[in-house]
């Protein structure tokens, strides 16, 4: 296969040309349904929401923006891939959403804020330098502002590779994708410890954390019927914030809050 969807100049995996595949393979199936069901439950519990404006960074097809727009937030959706943005625009017609075609790295120019609420779900793992991106998100927050961050969990990727029998791959720690083909394996899967360290560096406190798809990806066979599906969703809900289960969620969902007082970053490095 040719590299039909190359990386951006910054080395990030913009989803140009992937809108159909992403819509089908994630949101078209049970994984997407489960993610949205969990967000319905977790976002109101993990965030303090009062209708504040929200910046959705790497908003993709707009599912998360739609979630906030339906709850009367004015949403700014930032997304570098033109076809993703166009589909989001079509899906969100009629809602109070501003669309910006730009990468996260251009936030200071395009949407400087400061923002009281930023959402960035399933984006950092597609960047060559997620740590620098984390700093940009932190800088965009107002004091006391909240960052709803969701990242692809490297520990869960290892676990699912082992469960699938990819033992040498796991042993060699060859877990990340190259981002150069149509595969949807992230190029920079992340660990909880990295988020803890980066939060500390940038004066963010971790208010809450949850795992998304803590059981689903390890099932030997998919739920046989609707009743089993509901049982699985109930289990995911019950244990998504419980030790040890949240740690092996395919995605980790955080609420990070910018401390009002924080020594300058230069001093804390
Ligand atoms: C897995 S999708 C997630 C989309 C959406 N946030 C969601 O949760 O459904 C990753 C998105 O990040 C975008 N992306 C890649 N590099 C980016 C960058 N440098 N800045 C902002 N978004 C980026 C991709 O184009 C893609 O739309």
Automatic annotation (TrEMBL):
InterPro entries: Cmo5U_methylTrfase, Methyltransf_25, SAM-dependent_MTases_sf
UniProt-listed Pfam families: Methyltransf_25
Keywords in alphabetical order: Methyltransferase, S-adenosyl-L-methionine, Transferase, tRNA processing
Positions of S-adenosyl-L-methionine binding: 35, 58-59, 79, 121
EC number: 2.1.1.-
GO MF entries: methyltransferase activity
Reaction(s) catalysed (UniProt annotation): 5-carboxymethoxyuridine(34) in tRNA + S-adenosyl-L-methionine = 5-methoxycarbonylmethoxyuridine(34) in tRNA + S-adenosyl-L-homocysteine
Enzyme class: transferase
Domain Methyltransferase: 54-145
Gene3D superfamilies: Vaccinia Virus protein VP39 (3.40.50.150)
Gene Ontology biological process: methylation
Function: Catalyzes the methylation of 5-carboxymethoxyuridine (cmo5U) to form 5-methoxycarbonylmethoxyuridine (mcmo5U) at position 34 in tRNAs.
HAMAP family, per the entry: tRNA_methyltr_CmoM (MF_02057)
The protein, known as: tRNA 5-carboxymethoxyuridine methyltransferase
Source organism per UniProt: Billgrantia bachuensis
Gene encoding the protein: cmoM
